[in-house]
Amino acid sequence: MHGSRIPIWFFIGVLLLSYGVLIAGYGLSEVITGQLASVELKELHAPLWWGSTLLALGVFYTVKFRPGKKQ
Known about the structure:
By secondary structure, the protein is an all-alpha fold. The protein is about 65% helix and about 0% strand. The chain has one domain (about 1-65).
């Protein structure tokens, strides 16, 4: 029973991964359609950058702390 614990970091990684997919997808759709939000510095594409960052962190935590991996 002790070996079947799932680390909390795995769930945090899944959460970051899902938020990253959603935010990066939104940012990518903004870039493709050309309908950028009416905010200052919109040419920097912040949703695309932050979504990609969350996606990378989510993949890192999910892979590093996946269940069944010896730590």
